Amino acid sequence: MRQNNLMEAILGELSQTRFNKIECISKTGSTNSDLVLRALELPDGFILVSDHQTDGRGRLGRQWEAPPSKNLLFSVLLHPNWPIERHQLVTPALALATVETLERLGLRATVKWPNDVMVEREGEKKIAGILADYVQQENPVLVVGMGLNVTWPYEQDSAPPNSTSLKACGIERDRFELLVEILKNFDKKLDEISSEKGTTTFRQTYTVKSSTLGNQVKVEKSDGDIVGKAVDVGEDGSLIIENENGTTFITAGDVIHLRKL
After folding, report:
1. Of 253, 250, 231, 234, nearest to 242 (Cα)?
2. Mean pLDDT for the chain?
3. Is 87 in a helix, a strand, or coil?
4. How many CA atoms, within 13 angstroms, populate the side-chain half-sphere of residue 149?
5. Is the dihedral of CA 72, 76, 80, 81 positive or negative?
6. Which of 28, 93, 169, 178 lies at a 20 to 30 A Cα distance from 198?
């Protein structure tokens, strides 16, 4: 009964957004994978939250597993009403929504292209990761999920390098309060993506909050690495790299910051 009341309270807080149905489970492999499998049956704005993920995925198939009930792990299902070339903006939209939430908590937060949220804590540390899946069908569906480190890792916890949590930053917050704030922000970002001039205004916001732009970077790709200066992002969310060979538009890859220029 307590969980039902909690879910009702969350939906009440989100009543003015597109997020209209929520399910909370104790354990799963991946909330993204679960929603992809159910894409045909679920409405726009469906939220799936899990206390524990055993097969959480990062970029390039990396595993990312936190202890149960420590972090915020969720995915949402979307029926996009914007042009197909804007689909790639959904991941940075959730990243920016998270950055805004963290900034209200007093943290200096940025987006590391393409899908990591970073905070300043003795250097740049990862506090959240985002992954999107595209389901191609008659009415395409997007599933976007995030893991936000709330109370793990902390102090001597064994965790991926250069990662941190809200608790490690001295901030104590309820996971579900964070979920509500992030999704309220995310809903506004999705409205922006849908608007006529959405790509322009969205790009302006993103460039201000990017920790990647202005850096000499290495982009690890399956067909070969690219090294150069990250100079801009395109209206489709692509990363624009300049080097002695000219300008390259990157739509997918793993970015390593080499140094600030």
Report:
1. 231
2. 91
3. helix
4. 27
5. negative
6. 178
Q: What is the pTM (predicted TM-score) of this model?
A: 0.93
For residue 76, count other CB atoms closer than 10 A to its CB: 28
pLDDT digits (tens, 9 = 90+) for 28-51: 999 999 999 999 999 999 999 999
How do residues 153-179 score in pLDDT, each as one tens digit?
A: 888 877 788 899 999 999 999 999 999
Q: What is the pLDDT of residue 214?
A: 94
Burial class of residue 40 (count of CB atoms within 10 Å of its CB; 0-12, 13-18, 19+): exposed
Of 59, 124, 47, 108, the residue nearest 254 (C-alpha): 59
Exposed, middle or buried: residue 124 (CB in 10 Å: 0-12, 13-18, 19+)? Answer: middle
Structure-block tokens of residue 103: 């900034």
Tallying the residues shown for the chain, one arrives at: 261
Other beta carbons within 10 Å of 71: 27
Q: What is the pLDDT of residue 223?
A: 83
CA triple 110-143-2, angle to 5 deg: 90
DSSP-derived letter for residue 67 is P
